[in-house]
Amino acid sequence: MDKIPVVYSADHKKHNPFYLFGVDEHPEKPDRIENILKEIKKLDMAEICEPETVNIGLIKEVHLDGYINFLQSLKKNISNEYRFPINFYHESNRNLIGFRSLLGRYSFDVSTPVKKNTFQCALVSASVSYTAAKLIKDGKSVVYAAGRPPGHHAMKSLMGGFCYLNNAAIAAQYLSKFGSVAVLDVDYHHGNGTQDVFYDRGDVLTVSIHINPNLSFPYYWGFEDEIGVGLGKGRNFNITLDNNIGNDIYHEALERALNKVVDFKPNFLIISLGLDTYENDSIGTFKLTTDYYKKMAQTIKSLNYPTVVIQEGGYYDDLGKNVVSFLSGFCG
Ligand code: Q9C
Ligand code: ZN
Fold first, then answer.
1. pTM: predicted TM-score of the whole model, two decimal places
2. Ligand 1 pocket at CB < 6 A
3. pLDDT digits (tens, 9 = 90+) for 31-70
């Protein structure tokens, strides 16, 4: 068995957000990826590789120009102190130019602040995921993208849920030039950004298993009647679950999700790997166990698709052990 390439850059540490109402610690912190790297390095099964920077052109195939231009403008317009949106109006057709108006136009929550280097940090995470996709295109069978900030909540022109650029969508858009792509999102939360990017497209299937949005973030997306439009109709599936469910109910949902993937006959599979489904996660309510992540991965591996695994959520100090359990399901 070849070693699993793990794409990683230490530059993720430059992104260190806090919460607007500074009571709780922001859960999306640099230690997450450092703990993952530490656990992966203990094993022989992985080899660490540096990312290659993704082109802005590919990013603009996923996100709208105005949104990317705004993120790029942060470098010259604001300091290295985090700023938060306060006013929101997403339907404005005006040519907005003020920093505050644009920040509200391009955000859907207040958990996703921006500072001078935010675009550069998000670009590193997107590059980690793009590089993983490129290794798959070049013939690897499984590659893990160990990046942060996460991406699956980032929509065509909205940041939110700790996400700025949609890393999984950028990987999927890249691979879609070489064949059909399925994205399976197993984060605790709905992958609303990935759904948004491919909602009207027939060449990329999106399937997400998540907490019922009536009960949790992202609240406004992720219902089961969201099945796609136009060429994308029947190519988006949402499977919603209750609070506190465990391995068995989750596994039934996984099998339903994988049936949709198999029916689609993709050339490539992307897994948005949120590990906030874990029993000790600080945000999620599901009760999945460390051992279950190995079974989840074995079930996915049995389908034999070249697979990009992209890190999304997971908010606890020993996140790395669950990444290792998951990746071990792809070994042997
Ligand atoms: N007090 C991901 O897992 N709301 N994002 C948190 C907690 C936002 C989660 C509120 C949750 C976003 C990638
Ligand atoms: Zn999540």
1. 0.98
2. 111, 150, 153, 161-163, 187, 189, 217, 274, 276, 283, 312-313
3. 999 999 999 999 888 999 999 999 999 999 999 999 999 9
